[in-house]
Description:
Structural class: alpha/beta
Domain RNase H type-1: 1-127
Oligomer: single chain
CATH class: Alpha Beta
Radius of gyration: 16 Å
Pfam families: RVT_3 (PF13456)
Strand content: 25-35%
Helix content: 25-40%
Low-confidence stretches: none
Strand order of the largest sheet: 5-4-1-2-3-6
Distance between the termini: 45 Å
CATH topology: Nucleotidyltransferase, domain 5
GO molecular function, one term: RNA-DNA hybrid ribonuclease activity
CATH superfamily: Ribonuclease H-like superfamily/Ribonuclease H
Organism: Quercus suber (Cork oak)
Protein name: Ribonuclease h protein
Order of helices and strands: EEEHEHHEHEHH
Mean pLDDT: 84
Amino acid sequence: YKLNTDGASCGNPRRAGGGGVIRDSAGNWIRGFARYIGYTTSIIAEFWALRDGLQLAIQLGVQNLEVELDAKVIVDLINSRNSSNLAYSSLLFDCRLLLEMIPHTKVKHVFREANKCADDLVRKGCHAHEEFVIFDSPPSDDVFAVVYANENGESFCRQVVANLAILAA
């Protein structure tokens, strides 16, 4: 199984949400979720989304899970085992504990383009009227289109700005 999560704050700190999706090895939608978190920072929102996704995976009985996030700082904190006194150390601890409850896990960074489905769900979380919503199927045409594209092997290109001075050298 694969879990993609994302969190966002519309400002830092501002209204925040989290979201994610669990898919099987063929890319089929298993469950999605979105959460309105309240007013907080993007890093806290990222941790909330990861924790929600891990809890959902455990509830589903997932034994083998690849976790992908586009927040490299979260991936580095999870994988580093650093336990410094950070404002979000309790969320970090929760995520590590949940990861240990799943027998086989791997947490890795992906670019935003590879995390598009979770990115679309986080917008639902930021604007949700309910605190936490689980989706048994893609909740909108936009999310469905991303899931369908992923299932069919399509990818989304990453756009970068080239430095002409370096290219000319």
